[in-house]
């Protein structure tokens, strides 16, 4: 067996805090509160960065979709396509030149 005294470190710290006064206890509480504040702020910062990254990804996805829709709109509104659909689906045709009427505004 060793001749080391058996002391409980937590018990010694508690006795020191009680006997020395309130200043160490207040300092301990302030340090703990500050540490918790740092943890809380770090957590919220990480959440905000995560939300920002998700929003940027969503914006990029929507930008790609917008570009695709513009391309589709341009393809669907080409004059030759509209003219072919008018002939095929609506049985429309260009009027003969003798049936054209020109209206002029005075």
From TrEMBL:
Keywords: Cell cycle, Cell division, Cell inner membrane, Cell membrane, Membrane, Transmembrane, Transmembrane helix
Taxonomic superkingdom: Bacteria
Entry keyword Repeat: no
Primary localization: membrane
InterPro entries noted in UniProt: Cell_div_FtsL
Membrane topology: Single-pass type II membrane protein
Subcellular location: Cell inner membrane; Cell membrane
GO biological process per UniProt: FtsZ-dependent cytokinesis
Chain ranges passing through the membrane: 12-40
One GO cellular component term noted in the UniProt record for this chain: plasma membrane
Family designation: Belongs to the FtsL family.
Role noted for this protein: Essential cell division protein. May link together the upstream cell division proteins, which are predominantly cytoplasmic, with the downstream cell division proteins, which are predominantly periplasmic.
Subunit relationships: Part of a complex composed of FtsB, FtsL and FtsQ.
Protein name as it appears in the record: Cell division protein FtsL
């Amino acid at each position: 067996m060793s001749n080391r005294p058996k002391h409980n470190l937590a018990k010694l710290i508690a006795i020191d805090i009680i006997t020395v006064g309130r200043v160490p206890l207040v300092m301990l509480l302030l340090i703990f509160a500050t540490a918790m504040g740092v943890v809380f702020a770090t957590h919220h910062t990480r959440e905000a960065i995560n939300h920002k990254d998700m929003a940027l990804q969503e914006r990029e996805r929507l930008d790609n979709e917008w570009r695709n829709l513009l391309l589709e709109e341009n393809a669907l509104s080409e004059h030759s396509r509209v003219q072919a659909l008018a002939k095929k689906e609506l049985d429309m045709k260009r009027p003969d030149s003798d049936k054209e009427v020109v209206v002029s505004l005075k």
